[in-house]
Amino acid sequence: MNRRTWLSRTGSGLGWCALAGMTTTAARAEQAQAVDHEATAGPLTARTPHFEPRAKRVIMLFMQGGPSQLDMFDPKPALADASINNGRRGAQLMASPWKFRSCGQSGLPISELLPNLGTHADS
Fold first, then answer.
1. Which of 1, 45, 97, 102 is deepest in the core (most CB within 10 A)?
2. What span, in angstroms and rounded, lies between the C-alpha atoms of 95 and 78?
3. Does the predicted TM-score (pTM) go above 0.70?
4. CA nearest 114: which of 103, 123, 84?
């Protein structure tokens, strides 16, 4: 028996083994679906709704590019010190370019990006 014949026979045998495994898996999946889905479902599986949905269309808005929470609520005053870079040009640490002010009784630092939010700081 040469190498080509041996490879084709063993490849066919492995293919039949894979097919047998896939068909038994498919048969088990069909049996599992036949069992009452509500009784065997886990706590996070989708359930039937309590009422008939009326929505015909849905608009999904995925907006990217808003300001970072680091620039709005986290001043990091130590980063403003020039000595943190130690004179290196490629240093990756940079302070926020926005000014912060303490708002409310708690003194929550809020950036100038959100000027009207300071009135609701303790609410």
1. 102
2. 8
3. no
4. 103
